Amino acid sequence: MSTVQDASAVTSLFGAGTAKTSKSSTEETQNRFLSLLVAQMKNQDPLNPLDNAQVTSQMAQLSTVQGIENMNTSLAALASSLGTNQMAQAANLIGHGVLVPGNSISPTENVMGFELERPADQVKLSIQNASGATVRTLNLGERADGVNVLAWDGLTDSGTAAPTGAYTFKVEAVQGGQALSSTALHLGMVNSVSQSSQGVQLNLASGSASYADIRQIF
User: pLDDT tens digits for 69-84?
Assistant: First the structure.
């Protein structure tokens, strides 16, 4: 009578040792394992019976698969719970202004900012109109790392009021003669929040932003 003692059969059947998990439920996996184990015992060679170590190894493989399935279920439940809590927190932001990555600004919605990865000994901020022409240049001197917030007074370099319209700004930061990386931040009013495959999204008057993008709340 032939023997069926190759542990790789169980590995192949249940997917142990790989990143993939079985598509069947835990109960189905257990039934399949027990059926295979009974078949092995029925067809084992009496002169070369199934080794206890092999049975133990196969049981361990089953336990691993079950553990992965249970962990995936727990992680899915945790992610769902976190998403719900984050959605509730984000809803409290409706009607508030948030500072998020972006470079838009206007003479009336004039709060802006930037985030530096390291302290800078010289920062220059320039504001451009819709045509790309610079209307205002601000030399801000030394600035600390992290988030820096400031407001535009709505004036041009000539001291006159900037016409109503859409403007953008850019930041140039230097430390020891070397340019530093910076992230422009603009103010957006939260109109509503929504849930997407990317997580909780803030729907702003000027577009949208991720909940994780918030740098400051006003």
Answer: 666 666 655 555 455 6
Q: How far is CA 160 from the centre of its chain?
A: 43
Out of 3.30.300.30, 2.60.40.4070, 3.10.50.40, 3.30.390.30, the CATH code matching 97-217 is: 2.60.40.4070
112: which residues sit within 8 A by CB, 6+ positions away? Answer: 103, 105, 125, 149, 150, 151, 152, 169, 184, 185, 186, 187
Rg (CA), the chain: 31
Q: What is the mean pLDDT of the chain?
A: 80
Q: Give yes or no for a contact between 113 and 149, defined as CB atoms under 8 angstroms apart.
A: yes
- Residue 50, phi then psi, degrees to nearest 5: -60, 130
At 54, is the pLDDT very low, low, confident or very high (cuts 50, 70, 90)? low
Residues 217 and 93: beta-carbon distance below 8 Å: yes
In sequence order, the β-bridge partners of residue 125 are 138, 171
- Asked if 68 and 15 count as a contact pair (C-beta separation under 8 A), the reply is no
CB 70 within 8 A of CB 26: yes
- The pTM for the full model equals 0.62
Q: Tell me the per-residue pLDDT of 144-163, one tens digit each, with 9 for 90 and over.
A: 999 999 999 999 999 999 99
CA-to-CA separations, 148 to 69, 86, 116, 184, in angstroms, rounded: 46, 26, 8, 10
Using CB atoms within 10 Å of the CB of residue 195, give its burial: 0 to 12 exposed, 13 to 18 middle, 19+ buried: middle
